[in-house]
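Hey, I'm writing a tutorial for new members on how sequence and structure tokens pair up, and I'd like a real worked example in the thread rather than a made-up one. If someone can provide the structure for the chain below, I'll link this post from the tutorial.
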Amino acid sequence: MPREKGQKVIASNRKARHEYTILETFECGIVLQGTEVKALREGKASLVDAFATAENGEVWLHALHIAEYGQGSWTNHPVRRKRKLLLHRQEIDGLIGRLRDGNLTLVPLQMYFKDGYAKVELALARGKQAHDKRRDIAERTAKREVERELGRRVKGM
């Protein structure tokens, strides 16, 4: 049976872009159990509280919520467990060095299927302070108003 091509988003962490300044993103594979994959195909995942850590030369995803698979039995997976992320050794070493240097964290932005494989978009990020969040909201609002006004002027011609 051929695998589906393309990308299908399972879950997004929209709050992460508000809470953090994204410095760099990585596409990671994720180690899953059988019923987890089936639950993900049904779209039953949440990245709200999820975060990643680098431990002993490996990257782990914590607090990712994947609901139990409805058709599963005693073989169902634990809902929240530590899951290993798959990256190249050079990427892991670079992440560990940057995490050690500064006030940075690893935040999952979205989870998706790409060519049949479950992937996580992981971001190296710095936390925003309250005034940074307010400034971003003000800039976004101003940009939206400018676009709206330009749209009105084009229609008026």
